[in-house]
Design goal:
This protein is an alpha+beta fold. The protein has three helices and ten strands. A five-stranded mixed beta sheet has the order 2-1-10-5-6. Strands 3, 4, 7, 8 and 9 form a five-stranded antiparallel beta sheet that branches. The chain is globular and about 40 Å long. Bound molecules: ligand MTE and molybdenum atom (MO).
């Protein structure tokens, strides 16, 4: 496939979208972050702001939670939209190419001032890798972030790359 869909946006939106790399790169320049390294703890790449994606799909006023779905490893988080809508971004590009799975692609969600793992609803664990779908919902949705120390430790033991 030459033009794979990298990111779907569905739920409480006026126009559900399925975006290719070209679609993501074509989102208004005011929503693009050419180099995220200063904002994302040294992680590299180009990102599009969540705000730009909400704009493209026409997020409804009824959208209160943001679902981050990663089918690749069946990881899901659902976080209050108000807490992240103006500051979160999705890294989707590195060196002019789509972000590799190794680097957390197709899309790696990131909130710059996240809190420590499991300290809040918007925590480091919500920085979901391998994101393929954003889902806006009226109430809290599917969320399988680790709930206790053992589950969290087991998850990190499984992670192939854990670079800080
Ligand atoms: N798809 C997916 N995203 C994920 C995880 C995961 O297991 N799968 N782990 C989360 C957790 S618990 C943390 S703390 C951060 C770690 O990000 P890092 O590997 O870049 O340090 O990724 C989050 N994103
Ligand atoms: Mo975490």
């Amino acid at each position: 496939m030459s033009n794979p869909i990298l990111l779907g946006i569905r739920g409480e939106v006026a126009s559900p979208r399925e975006l290719t790399f070209a679609d993501l790169a074509a989102i208004d320049a005011k929503y693009q972050i050419a180099d995220v390294s200063a904002l994302a703890g040294g992680r590299k790449g180009t990102a599009v702001m969540l705000e730009g994606l909400l704009q493209v799909a026409g997020a409804k006023a009824t959208a209160k939670y943001l679902g981050l779905h990663a089918a690749a490893d069946n990881f899901h988080a659902s976080i209050p939209l108000d807490g992240v809508r103006s500051k979160a971004f999705l890294i989707y590009q590195l060196d002019g190419q789509p972000l590799s799975v190794k680097a957390g692609g197709p899309c790696r969600f990131f909130v710059p001032d996240h809190l420590a793992c499991r300290s809040a609803e918007i925590d480091e664990c919500a920085n979901v890798k391998f994101v393929d779908t954003l889902e806006l919902t009226t109430g809290k949705g599917d969320d399988n972030r680790p709930h206790d120390d053992a589950a969290h430790a087991a998850l990190h033991a499984n992670e192939t790359s854990h670079e800080h």
